[in-house]
């Protein structure tokens, strides 16, 4: 005799959960379609994550970068999205020179510069707690967001202060197929206001708004060197999706920005003094973990100018 079991309650959609993150196996494709794995000949590379993050051994960032070394480092950057270097006792000028191998340098207009042009010092501690603990891509409020950044830790807290990066190509790959179809061709507005309005008085804020009006970028960006589709919205600067009613835009943005929160798409780096991270801002988001207060965390960063997303 068969017994009919009661129906199980459906707590949420099996296809699209409330947070937009699908359960089960992930698509963890590190390289673009058709690109084959190749060894590196001029340095040792140790992966720290499945799709993102690798530590480079055997490169002194204080020395001039030869053409063959730059080509191989650039390939590693495109394949791993963020590169880490330990024990780099370099000056701000040497850090600037290394970053300049990848293009013109730029400064964030809302953050004071350091002692050297285009080197920005971030000093966080008891008097100025960290506020970068939100998933973001740098300066997407600009028409041409940064290509990437080179960050060196000068003073490291005794505990905490890690940084995390997320691979936004993996984030796109793991969207449901109907969501991918829906967002292709959509554009979103990016504005500095959500990230920086709390740091300025009304008069200065008004001047900034005139100088840096909101800009539009594609929701799905094509990486200019790899050709991969990457999800190009972030919680810090993306305000809404063009052409959608506000409530629909908010729901879709929540789904998309949550993709950066998936651990399988991330790498987490534990800093030591004179560690350096070099990341591709076109392919990643990052999050500075704010768990070290009241200890100090001091870093210097150089940003590389980028191109207009398409």
Report the helical percentage. 10-25%
Radius of gyration: 21 Å
CATH class: Alpha Beta
Q: Structurally, how many domains make up the residues? A: 1
SSE-based structural type = alpha+beta
Please name the CATH architecture.
Answer: 4-Layer Sandwich
How many helix segments? 7
Termini Cα gap: 63 Å
The CATH fourth-level homologous superfamily: Clavaminate synthase-like
- Give the overall average pLDDT: 90
β-strand number = 16
Characterize the largest beta sheet: strand count, sense, and whether it forms a barrel. Answer: 8 strands, mixed
Show unreliable segments: 5-15
CATH fold description: Double-stranded beta-helix
Strand content: 15-25%
SSE topology string? EEHEHEEEEHHEHHEEEEHEEEE
Shape: globular
Overview of the structural elements:
The protein is an alpha+beta fold. It has one domain: Double-stranded beta-helix (4-Layer Sandwich), CATH 3.60.130.10. The chain is built from seven helices and 16 strands. It has helices at 67-80, 92-100, 168-173, 177-183, 193-196, 202-211, 246-257, and strands at residues 44-47, 54-57, 82-85, 105-106, 120-124, 148-155, 163-167, 187-190, 215-218, 220-222, 229-231, 238-241, 266-269, 276-280, 284-288, 297-304. Strands 1, 2, 3, 4, 5, 6, 14 and 16 form an eight-stranded mixed beta sheet that branches. Strands 13-7-15 form a three-stranded antiparallel beta sheet. The protein has a three-stranded antiparallel beta sheet with strand order 9-8-12. β1 and β2 form a beta hairpin. The longest helix has 14 residues, at 67-80. The radius of gyration is 21 Å and the shape is globular. Mean pLDDT is 90; it is low at 5-15.
